[in-house]
Amino acid sequence: MNIIYLDTETTDADENARLIQLAYKNAANGEEVNEYFKPPVPISFGAMAVHHVTAKMVENKPAFEGSEHKQKITELLEDNVLVAHNAHFDMRILKNEGVETKKYIDTLRVARHIIDSESYGLQYLRYSLDFNIEAVAHDAWGDILVLESLFEYLKMQVAEQYSLASEDDIVEKMLELTQMPVLLDAFVFGKYKGEKFADVAKKDQGYLEWLHGSETSKSLHEQNEDLVYTLKNYIDKL
Q1: Which residues, in sequence order, are CB contacts of 132 under 8 Å at separation 6+?
Q2: Domain tally for the chain?
Q3: Which uninterrupted H or E stretch holds 51?
Q4: By residue range, what is the domain housing residue 227?
Q5: Is residue 62 part of a domain?
Q6: Chain segment 97-114, per-residue pLDDT in tens
Q7: What is the pTM of this model?
Q8: If we measure between CA atoms, which residue out of 179, 150, 154 comes closest to residue 164?
Q9: Which residues are bridge partners to 26 per DSSP?
Q10: How many other β-carbons are positioned within 10 Å of the β-carbon of residue 112?
Q11: CA 84 → CA 107, 207, 218, distances in Å?
């Protein structure tokens, strides 16, 4: 199974966000793409503060719609495996542009399953795992360079932890882990920050139920799937 490393920068983080930068690398032939596009909606100031791409920078760029790049990535994702960090976000952006994803590996989800870390953000893992690469953070191409290193690291960890030898078996396991929500161990926010979910479940059932209701009341793309899964797990046991 061939891998397509992919990252996007966008007009915003909401459900209607559109593409302004697309970067990907085809692992099979080494093809690299890093392109900017003029979006059909404004770029929010919040988004600019993260990726530093302004409206002026893309005002003379082509639209993604109707471009050869849209046609190419659509074709690539027909038969290959997309690899992205927090893949649901990039997949949603692609869907907003009319591009569907069939198979994907989320390195964020896989990392949560197989390594212990205080944070699982791409740039945090870049430094905590000591990847010796030069890359601009919060730039789609810079993130691709980090993503590729993270994917290779996670492949080694999956191979070791699940006693797998073949490339196909390792990728299949990563596809499987991507679809499995993570049972969180401890709170990283709120009044019980640092305490284990199991301990809070014993003393404050109401808080877990309130938090579950609060999280599931959000739109689907805003929900933390692992948090909802963990809360439901402990609520069902009470």
Answers
A1: none
A2: 2
A3: helix 45-51
A4: 197-237
A5: yes
A6: 999 999 999 999 999 999
A7: 0.91
A8: 154
A9: 4
A10: 19
A11: 6, 33, 24
